[in-house]
Every structure is written in structure tokens, then in C-alpha cells.
Amino acid sequence: MIHSDLYIDLTEKKGKGIFTSVQLEAGVIIEISPVIVMDQKDREHLDKTLLHDYIFEWGNQKELCCMALGFIPMYNHSYSSNCEYFMDFKEDSIFIKTVRVIMKGEEITINYNGDWDDKTPLWFDVID
User: Fold this and answer.
1) Per-residue pLDDT tens over the stretch 70-82
2) Candidates 2.170.270.10, 3.90.110.10, 3.40.605.10, 3.40.50.300; CATH matching 6-110
């Protein structure tokens, strides 16, 4: 499920990103997408490719990884994100939920650290 008012467009500095064509209220689930779960052996191969930047650690012990489908790989990072993501290991899915009101035309972002307000440095230089 992808909210019908989301779309992909170019950002000013980050390449492509996800935007909304309507105002979104806080606490709204805007996407639920399945994932493809892979083991550590697959992860070793993926880490040598561009896909490294698009996979998620997966499982209670982060012993696996996954590739999310839908728009999930296209959400850009922000330390002051307007959404957060949740992993459902039982259903093999990830969902995105707004943490505040998001205005029409605003880019929708997540914090790649997992918690929307986590300021831990990432593996790349952040444009925020």
C-alpha cells in the first residue's frame, strides 16, 4: 500500500525523493511495503554494490538484511525527519508513518538510524 498522494520527484540536493501532493496529518501510515529477506552471505555480495546504500539490516539480532520494495528505497535521510519507519519481521514488511504534519509539496524523509530523532552519524556525509 502506497498513499495515493505520494510521488517521486527531484530534490534540490539529494537526487530523487518522495513528496506529497496534499497535506498529511501526524500519525498517518503512508506506506506498507513487502521486503525481500536475504542472509549474511547475500549481504556480503550486496555490500560490494550500489545496493549497499538501499538495504536494511533485518531480524531481531540484525543477522539478516532485506531489500524493501515500493517507494521505501527512495525516502531520503534527515536527522529532523518527518516520518519514521517500522519493521515487521513476522510479515516481512516495512511501514512508514508520519511523525508530524507534512505540508503539500514537502519532501518526505526518514532517519536512516531507525528512530526519527536519532542524531548518530551515518556512513555517508549527510545533506540536511
Assistant:
1) 999 999 988 889 9
2) 2.170.270.10
